[in-house]
Amino acid sequence: MDKSRHPAPRSAQSRPLQAEHPGVSPTWFRYEARHYAPVLDEYGFARGSGRLEIAERVFERVRCTPKGVWLVEVWGPYRSGTKRFVRLDARKQYASPSREQALQAFLERKRAQVRILERRLDQARIALEVGKTRAQALQTLAAPMSGPPRREQVV
Questions:
Q1: β 68-75/51-64 pair status
Q2: Which of 79, 102, 110, 116 has the most CB within a 10 Å radius?
Q3: What pLDDT is recorded for position 154?
Q4: Residue partners of 27: CB distance under 8 A and separation at least 6
Q5: pLDDT value at 58 more than 60
Q6: DSSP class of residue 72?
Q7: 74-78: which pairs have CB atoms within 8 A and are 24 or more residues apart?
Q8: pLDDT tens for residues 18-40?
Q9: Which of 64, 53, 66, 81 shows the shortest CA–CA distance to 28?
Q10: Is residue 43 part of a domain?
Q11: What is the model's pTM?
Q12: Runs of H (alpha helix) within the chain
């Protein structure tokens, strides 16, 4: 086999980290809600309900394709080893090319989450009412009949 036809594959470190692509932002953003556990008192009981923070995640464009971009998360001088692909023409994207778009996407995700959880809460309330009705029906069937007690016949 002639090895001159098959060059050795390039390692990931020899590839350029930042691909040039006009019109596509080199920095992308995503906002997420992060919930932190409440502080415990000296008896081990939770004090309060914890805290909620809106965290900004920053991504760097690694490579562009005709359909989208590959992103890696960056925090300070560190980079994630996990790459994520984001389509440029998608209706919903994992990350957004500007902070404003990322914040709007976060708000849409949270509105959808509230809508879904409200429907589930309504279903749980309906199921509770149906369960109460069935429990009452079972109690009326199991209740003893009114009137004098019946005597057993001895044969």
A1: antiparallel
A2: 102
A3: 64
A4: 58, 59, 60, 61, 97
A5: yes
A6: E
A7: none
A8: 445 567 889 999 999 999 999 99
A9: 64
A10: no
A11: 0.69
A12: 99-142
* In contact, 70 and 62? CB cutoff 8 Å: yes
Spatial distance between the Cα atoms of 53 and 47, rounded to a whole number of angstroms: 18
Give CA separation, 95 vs 81, 113, 120, 136, 144, in Å: 17, 18, 28, 52, 65
Query: If you count DSSP H runs as helices and E runs as strands, how many of each does the chain have, helices first?
Result: 1, 6
Q: How many domains does the chain have?
A: 1
Tell me which residue range forms the domain holding 78.
Answer: 17-36+50-142
Q: How many CB atoms lie within 10 A of CB 61?
A: 22
Residues 69, 25: Cα–Cα separation, whole Å: 10
Within a domain: residue 68?
yes
Give the length of the chain.
155
Give the sheet arrangement for strand 27-36, strand by strand.
Answer: 27-36, 51-64, 68-75, 78-87
Q: Please give the structure tokens belonging to residue 120.
A: 């589930």
Residue type, 27: T
Flag whether 150 is in a domain. no
